[in-house]
Amino acid sequence: MDWQRLLVSYLVGFVLLNVLLGLMAYMTWFERRVLARLQHRVGPNRTGPFGLLQPIADGIKLLAKEDIVPANADRLVFLVAPLLSFALAPLGAAVIPFGETLHLFGVDVPLLVADINVAVLYVLALGSVGVYGIILGGYASGNRYSLLGALRSTAQVISYELVLGLSLVGVLILSGSLSLQDILREQQRTLVIGPLTLPNWYILSQPLAFALFLIAAVAETNRAPFDLPEAETELVAGYFTEYSGFRFSFYFLAEYINMIVVSLLAATLFLGGIDGPIADGVWWLALKALFFLFFYVWLRATLPRFRYDQLMGLAWKVLLPLALLNIALTGLVRLWGIGAL
Amino acid sequence: MIDFSQPTPVILSEVRLITPTRRELVLNMGPQHPSTHGVLRVRLTLEGETVIACDPVIGYLHRGVEKLGESHRYAQFVPWTDRTDYVAAPSNNLGYVLAVEKLCGIQAPERAQYWRMIMAELTRIASHLVWLGTHALDIGALSVSLYTFRDRELILDIFEKFCGARLTTNMMEIGGFSREIPPDLPEMVREFCRYFPKAIRQYEDLLTENPIWLARTKGVGVIEPEVAINYGLTGACLRGSGVNYDVRKAMPYLLYDRVEFEVPLGTHGDVYDRYLVRMEEMRQSIRIIEQCLEQVPTDGPLMAYESPYVIPPHKNVMTTAEDMQRHFIWVIKGFSPPKGEVYHAVEHSKGELGYYIVSDGSPIPYRLRIRSPDFVNLQSLPYMAQGAMLADIVALIGTIDIVLGSVDR
Amino acid sequence: MALSVLVFWLLALVSILGALGVVVARNPIHSAIGLVLSFLNVAAIYLVARAEFLAVVQVIVYAGAVIVLVVFVTMLVHPDDLPEFHGRRPLRVATGLILGIALLAEVTAAILARGLRGAPGPWTEETVAAVGGNTSALGQVLYSEFMLPIQLTAVLLLAATIGAIVLARPEAVSERLAVARRLLTISLAHPRGLDQPEPPLALPAGRDERVKPAGGGRPIVLARSADEFTERPAWGEWRPR
Amino acid sequence: MSELSATHFLLLSAALFIIGMVGVLTRRNVLVIFMCIELMLNAVNVSLIGFAWELHQLTGQVFALFVIAIAAAEAVVGLGIVMALTRRADTVDIDELRQLRE
């Protein structure tokens, strides 16, 4: 066992986790500011310059609140469910490559926590296990709104997970690998079509898959216009109606971490990740992810909410056939490309 | 087809069919719920997400306003009308004041009538803006509510300029207005009329052609015209179903027969039609206000001081003994209208708002009854809700446009 | 003892505890939690056995889909009284336990006394790595030797999907709805359907200036006086009585 | 037993299988019985993977994959049946369901 490598990847993971938590805190600030601008408001601007200390103030407030357990809750499950949600959320970032290998003090530091050869499936598996935090929390609260939120969420996540997975198959066919590192390497090549020199980003060769992925990712993270599990105007707060204090904040933070991870993933899978026109590096990834995060907020400011049956109809009747079509087309093109047709 | 002449027979086995089974969920929506617009409680029987039965429970905001009216002198009751439909206070004032004036046989001067119309139409816009914002918010369109409340502020500023209050205006007085119109008010209203069509376009950009908005509102909560009439619906709930009934046209009061406007009627009777109708009503209100501003005399009396039922003019109270005594009696004892009963309805932003007053010749009404439009309109909720999805319920509550202060009174 | 054996026993212990939880828990949701725990640890054991693809599939399919479905159905079937009766059938429990322990003893003895060993195949760690990892190797085997079975599995899944849709098709709530509508609405309401196509419009003919396109493919009708559209509504004919 | 071999996998498999079996025999809730069946299927997979690992064969993994696919199909149909049954009988107690048949 190579202990040095293990230690290095542990350290990278530790740094990444902390950066992610910090980012997530500021994601709440970012969302509130952007949303406020879109709505002719100012947003938080009292705590620190530009309200930059607002996330910290919010965190302190949430930690200081009473942790209430309802009388007819399933106590143990109720207490554990938010932790489950929160703990699983950042794991997806572990497989995202943040840059080339660094050489620090004579040690190779890969800017990637774990290069798993089934990385894409791993991310999908995390998403499917992540739903337990929601469903168990909703069930254990002993509240009907929570129960309905949990039911909605289950159906939604299962359906959109399918679309998410199938939309990625096209990318997998093109790259021929499940490893994000390989997928990234494929995208770093350039594509020459006549006089044009384009990056081989999969958004260009897989635009349909990209659109499907984006829609499914929004649904998967329970964000507007797919925020039915927590639709505050129907289900009060959905599965976390009964939660308060830091357990509430765990659900809240898990949602934001999921958004960041999904944005990073979308940037890596379709927009070439760290690849950029000049000076490849983590800043390009950050820029692309930031665009997706803005997109999330933009959607929330613009669109009404779907109804439950419309949401399921969209997944099963529109997105799923489109994803299958995309797979078939990509497969045909690929076969034609290698001369098998 | 149901025979309308016969009462519907209740069959016991059928009653069992609608009592909730173990599989069904009885969900209490409200009285503390973000989208029941106050303290409405709706008891829903759900199968999955489908609503089997819907039972609105009201009365959580009941303050006995009608009974209070029977223990207050006529002029004292005007502020109470503010507190029934608190997002459209001037219209409530207007309905009551017109009823009392009808009872006493007073006619407010022309100039006051025009200003009453302007204020009533501004109120309609303000109320529709609150409706639009909350309705869109219920369906999930977050930003519209902030835009509408931004523009409602302009109307509230006009109210503030006019009478000093923004929400509970207590604006109308029996006989007209006792204070002069602020000189820069007409320009303020004109400025608003120039600005507001742009704002409507902004809301429509966000909603009217939005596919999710269409999916959430089209075909949802359909009320057929005959059903709407059976329920006694009024306002946009009735006109959305294509029935032409607008008190301003059917029984013109004030000077509505001197202005030109159109009554929008829906074609399908669903949530979307009611949305379209209300949007058009706001445009028509702007038209009415513009015409009123053109026609209103720049000076002239604002109060029907010739009537003995009206508070004497301020200057005379200070200078003449007779008016001082009259004022003293008016304030301490109140005026005593003739015996009789009267009903007067106005086209409130939510429908027909009627005040029914029985006078026994004393300074206090013998009986006061408020026909509040949203109380009547709310009855259609169970009809619209059956077979709808849970998420539709909030859209349906929104489309009726209720204010619980007016429903419960 | 090798590290891998230690890891294996740790994971096996947790997965057995989870499995016991399934059987012992009174609440079916707790059973499901135990099952997920067990499955996740089994997936980790697959990783120990260098079956990465299967490990992930195990998590996605079992933990992510099958158990979620079970939990979903559990919550749907009895939203109100989920904590259930435990089988108060002592005789049956005793029989089950005795049978189980006897079988466990037999099988354990058989496993420990196992003398039969199969012939090692070609897929050592090196050969698997040479074709690009477990997933690629599995794919190569799956789509060459097992082409027919995998097609058959696809057909099976399709059949199962259709079967499930038929089974779970919502029972007609229409009858109850019709009754509810008749009894619970105050007015003598009419039956109507949300799913029906929009009724054809009979807009006022020859009064085109009264019809204003309002958006969403819908017109609204503008009435100029109180006398218009009184015989019939703007949207068509009155229903015959 | 000091090196990891198929024997370990088989022992785990046997334990899981028999726990599942006892569950099927003793529990009354259809859904729990259903979960126990899944447990038994999964136990079989463990032994398949164990053999595949020991013998450097991928056939075992392929079989496990098929078992997972079939388990998913079984889950779908089984849960559909449970839904249909409970709709009619309003119970998940297997004894009551049996009484209904008579």
From TrEMBL, chain D:
The keyword Cytoplasm does not apply. The chain crosses the membrane at residues 6-25, 32-53, 65-85. It comes from the Bacteria. Keywords: Cell membrane, Membrane, NAD, Oxidoreductase, Quinone, Translocase, Transmembrane, Transmembrane helix, Transport, Ubiquinone. GO terms for molecular function: NADH dehydrogenase (quinone) (non-electrogenic) activity; quinone binding. One of its GO terms (biological process) is ATP synthesis coupled electron transport. Its main location: membrane. It catalyses: a quinone + NADH + 5 H(+)(in) = a quinol + NAD(+) + 4 H(+)(out). It is a multi-pass membrane protein. Its EC number is 7.1.1.-. One of its GO terms (cellular component) is NADH dehydrogenase complex. It is found in: Cell membrane; Membrane. Gene3D superfamilies: 1.10.287.3510. NDH-1 is composed of 14 different subunits. Subunits NuoA, H, J, K, L, M, N constitute the membrane sector of the complex. NCBIfam families: PRK05715.1-2, PRK05715.1-3, PRK05715.1-5. Belongs to the complex I subunit 4L family. NDH-1 shuttles electrons from NADH, via FMN and iron-sulfur (Fe-S) centers, to quinones in the respiratory chain. The immediate electron acceptor for the enzyme in this species is believed to be ubiquinone. Couples the redox reaction to proton translocation (for every two electrons transferred, four hydrogen ions are translocated across the cytoplasmic membrane), and thus conserves the redox energy in a proton gradient. This is NADH-quinone oxidoreductase subunit K. It comes from Thermomicrobium roseum.
